[in-house]
Design brief:
Strand content: under 5%
Oligomer: single chain
Shape: globular
Number of strands: 0
Helix content: 55-70%
């Protein structure tokens, strides 16, 4: 509980600072507009743009709201005397969110190039960009296509290899809503392309972000039901079913904002009041190592590919469902599927000082990412790639330490020394010298500590 308190206090200060700045600068109205965007409560006039390049990065700008709602969720759970945010699992989820954002820095919107090309050269209908009807049509169109993107990510094995990252947590909370694959944006772009024959790219990009923002808040146990709204909209109740590993939960409730698509296409399932939902993968991976969680299933898909004896089966191992077996239907049959029952969650209990260390270093990584995100468009792509690799390596090292894995301390030692070397050799013109000096001293001391760990002078002992 102390770890949650420390995390809550630090994140609260960030949000209060944001709120203070909004009020001080006379942008309190903007603050509430940002809040509304989390629930798709939006004035079309405020979010209609002529060109795709004019569309703000609503998703990245929403991170303060993400953190605020995570705090609120944990306060509610604490008051209800229910389990709160586990630091190891929660920071792993947030780390996956940063990994996805790192991917966006590298790809720079390239996944939407095909959409823009189709619209500019082959559009069939000319819809006015400044009409509210175009805005609403885009909202419904994006949500309809998202249903099929999401369904494909569960029914096509190679796409599931990426999407399973989102389902890899044994918890179901708001942090899980941010747990995504590095290349998730590339997994389903082809399903949105039919919209390019009518919907302007700016509307598509806008609503793709709003659709994802809406899906954040439905990852919670704190909201039991929304009454009549449950029939039309995707809600926490419906999405809890989607994240379940129970056999009756598998391949259900794919909707993004609207649940009506599942009702229409036969993939809807109600939450069962008398049966506990078990979260996570059917075959869970006991790890907080984000690099492993991002890649292990892709390796498994190709292992299955190599195990098959003929090309028909080899291709089926990639493009059929995860439960497919030779001689069975495309999505497999229930009797072949493993029956998940309530199970003990993977958890490594570390000393408080170690959790504080990992939380502080995670915050430093977040700060570094924010600095990179604010400058990446003026940096050389190779430089951006190098910083992204370091960020992902840092998050991986934090995950290995949460696992208390062998040689994690050695990796952390090298990570600290690499940053110290970079601070000494590279120029950071826009960063305050005191900040750079403070980071250098802090990482030298951190590296010295892990050196003592490496030579067994000190050791992390699990509680």
């Amino acid at each position: 509980m102390e770890e949650v308190s420390n995390c809550t206090e630090a994140v609260t200060s960030v949000f209060i600072k944001l709120l203070h700045n909004e009020t001080k600068n006379g942008r309190f109205d903007d603050f509430f507009k940002g809040l509304g965007r989390m629930f798709y409560i939006i004035d079309p006039l405020d979010t209609t743009f002529r060109d795709k390049d004019q569309v703000p990065n609503f998703y990245r700008n929403a991170w303060p709201y993400f953190l605020f709602f995570i705090i609120i969720e944990n306060l509610v759970l604490y008051l209800d005397k229910k389990p709160t945010f586990r630091l190891n699992d929660g920071l792993t989820s947030l780390s996956h969110g940063l990994v996805q954002e790192c991917g966006r820095l590298i790809f720079r919107g390239a996944e939407s190039y095909a959409y823009v090309y189709l619209y500019e050269n082959f559009r069939i209908v000319e819809l006015r960009w400044d009409q509210a009807s175009t805005w609403y049509l885009a909202a419904v169109g994006v949500d309809f296509c998202y249903y099929w993107v999401h369904r494909a990510c569960h029914e096509i094995h190679i796409l599931w290899a990426q999407h399973q990252v989102h389902h890899s947590s044994e918890e179901f909370n708001l942090a899980v809503g941010l747990r995504q694959s590095l290349i998730q944006g590339w997994c389903g772009f082809i399903f949105y392309l039919p919209l390019a024959f009518a919907i302007p790219p700016a509307h598509f990009v806008t609503h793709q972000q709003f659709n994802l923002l809406y899906q954040f808040w439905i990852h919670t146990k704190t909201v039991r039901t929304l009454g009549p709204l449950e029939f039309f909209f995707n809600t926490p109740q419906h999405h809890r079913v989607h994240h379940g590993a129970n056999i009756w939960c598998l391949d259900k409730n794919y909707g993004g904002v609207l649940i009506i698509w599942d009702r229409i296409f036969g993939t809807f399932a109600e939450e069962k009041k008398n049966e506990e939902i078990v979260y996570g993968l059917v075959f869970n991976q006991p790890s907080f190592n984000i690099l492993h969680l991002q890649t292990f299933y892709t390796a498994y898909v190709f292992q299955r590919f190599k195990e098959m004896n003929c090309w028909q089966h080899k291709l089926a191992a990639i493009f059929y469902g995860p439960s497919w077996q030779p001689g069975r239907p495309r999505l497999g049959v229930d009797e072949d599927k493993f029956k998940v029952v309530p199970r003990q969650k993977y958890d490594v209990k570390l000393p408080l000082w170690c959790n504080i260390y990992l939380f502080v270093h995670f915050c430093i990584v977040v700060y570094g990412f924010q600095e990179l995100a604010s400058r990446h468009l003026v940096l050389n792509p190779v430089t951006v790639l190098a910083f992204v690799i370091y960020i992902i390596a840092s998050l991986t090292s934090i995950g290995l330490l949460f696992d208390n894995a062998p040689y994690a301390c050695i990796m952390e030692l090298f990570r600290c020394m690499i940053l110290v070397t970079a601070l000494q050799k590279l120029e950071f013109k826009d960063v305050d010298n005191d900040v750079l000096l403070g980071c250098e001293v802090f990482f030298v001391l951190s590296g010295l500590f892990w050196l003592l760990q490496s030579v067994k002078v000190l050791q992390i002992k699990e509680i």
